[in-house]
Amino acid sequence: MIPSDLQCPMLLLACLFAVLQLSMLTAQSPNELSARLLDSLLQDYAFRAFFRPRTGVSYDGIVPSNLTGIRISAMRLRSGSLRKRGTGSYKEFQIPAGMVEQPYVNRLVLVYHNLGNWSSLYYPLPGYVSLAPVLGLLAYDASNLSATDLPELNLRATESPILVKFPNVELAAGSGPSPKCVYFGLQGSVEFDNVVDGSACSTVRQGHFSIVVEGIAPSPAPDGESGGGAAGGGGVWKREVWIVVGSVVGGLVLVAVLVVMVVWVKKCRGRKKIGRMEEVAGGGVPLATVIIASGKLPVAMGTRTRPVLESEYLP
């Protein structure tokens, strides 16, 4: 049981800790945060596509209406089979033999993402133009197909690399900048590599992938604006909007929390003062009560020395 004189300071410390956590959350990049939340949401909807699932068969999922344009799919596999034979072709991914996951599980689910026109919002690259949508491949434990918010397994290729083949990618020929494969890690890292086989990317890890090219900024553009198309200027503008909105909302919540803290401290002090007054009152000698009409009234008891009239001492 926490003493009453320590409850208010502890509650104050808890509120301060919550405010610090909120400030750290609002300081985090909104795009990185939303991308990780999107992965969790798509995992949930991809798992819903399983109805009497068969091993090695991909099932297309349905995303909510506010994410129209994103395509998802899920395929359940045996870990041993994936390591020995791979999966061959799974959407745009060519998954070879020698795949290993950590930690080890008996069965796993490969979740596929095609972010379509949402690519530049969740994975913006200022100064680059996207030539292909962002495609994702993530692995999860398949022991519970109704689970949500699952952590990703660490899936890696130990023999041949995974190939990501992007269809309908127009690579401009000439002296301009050459297209690059871009890899988006789960922890927010971004890596570039050369395009292989015309319009494919090679990787040994899970994550999200796309093909981009450096954008050329328009000559009349003022300082501070970066060029680029879907993943350039549009992504920067959307990110700035998210930052402004997040800052305003975070500031309002912070002010509300501070007001609640001040009111709470005042109430705690008032309760402590009343408690002390009750303790002092309870420490005295209680008065006797008598019932008069319909109420109880305190009365004083008789004194030890009874009063004596002076006339009683006269001779």
UniProtKB/TrEMBL annotation:
**One GO cellular component term:** membrane
Segments traversing the membrane: 241-265
Signal peptide limits: 1-27
Which of UniProt's keywords are assigned here? Membrane, Signal, Transmembrane, Transmembrane helix
Domain of life of the organism encoding this protein: Eukaryota
The residue stretches assigned to a coiled coil in this entry are none
Looking up PANTHER family in the UniProt record yields:
MALECTIN-LIKE DOMAIN-CONTAINING PROTEIN (PTHR33512:SF34), PROTEIN, PUTATIVE (DUF1191)-RELATED (PTHR33512)
Q: Would you tell me the protein name for this molecule? A: Uncharacterized protein
